[in-house]
Amino acid sequence: MKKTIRSWFMIVCCFLIFIISLLFYLSNPKSKTEKQSITLTNLGFDTAITFTATCTKKEFDQYVSLLSKKYTYYNQLFDPYHEYELSNVYTINHQGYHHPVEVDEELIDCIQIAKEVYDIQSKFDITSGKLLSLWHTYRIEGIEKNEMGLDGLLPSEYEIQQDINCRGFDKIRIEGNTIELLDENIQLDLGGIAKGYASQKVKEALNKAGCDNGFINAGGNVVLLSSKEQGWKIGIQNPDESSSLLEIDTKEDVSIVTSGDYQRYYTVNGTEYSHIIDPDTGYPATYNRSVTVITKDSSYADALSTLLFLLPIDQGLQIVNNLSFDVEVIWIYENGSQTPDYQYKKLKIYCTDPENVSLIQTQ
Hints:
Number of helices: 9
Strand order of the largest sheet: 1-2-6-7-10-13-14-16-15
Helix content: 25-40%
Structural class: alpha+beta
Shape: globular
């Protein structure tokens, strides 16, 4: 009899412990699967980075830590203006003419992807870093002056002509994990691809860690971490406003990257000068207000959006139609002979696949 009572007592105790543990688990916020989001402003690339995922709080904290470490690392790796403990683009630009510089294989990989896009059309040229550095200096000073209500300054024609021919992939040598500059006037700048490459690598790392439901928005570079049966709806910004002008509908885990004249610019005598410089003219490109590229790999989406921004739409379409992989493109422009699919005030919109794009602002 005593054994029976003892057995029942043990069963009741175990049941109570189970109920208490279950209640504790359900009441613990770190155990709940829910939508989580954070915006980080200290990871580099001159932009805020928003990360959203559906998971537990504990998992989300781990993913945020992974994402932060990755973006910080890639920001340092691709930085042409600052020196760090690792060998980076700054190291190449300052030491590469004197001796080969050994770098991380991912820097080599990014340069090789950039070379692929350069071979498609030479306006995408990461070796025109000297010209881009010239404009970077004037832009930073111009933004500071604009904030004080003053006009910025433009580089002189003499300065531009000095730097415009300091470019060429034939003036760099890659052997294994080393890079050598064959001309002392050559500088690299991977600004047109670095953020896309980094975002692609972060996506792959998050997927490997188990995060397969969410997205990253790195200042115009949106990376979807998984496909979604009910579909993703991604907004495309109005170049003249902070709100979305268009909406993309997709079920695939694609990357959506926008290059626009409204992202980093400064003003001189009432004219805005963007950060996307045409290496052939030496001045900011003015064909388009923005170009959005949608494709699987964020590296190519970033590089192609930069390249297509530097071209009129008809030339851009020729490139897109000859690519060996699937790409959708949305051009927002004001002047051009292309018949638009949509129009909003003075803005015209042309899409390679208008069925997946809708205008969400009305006149």
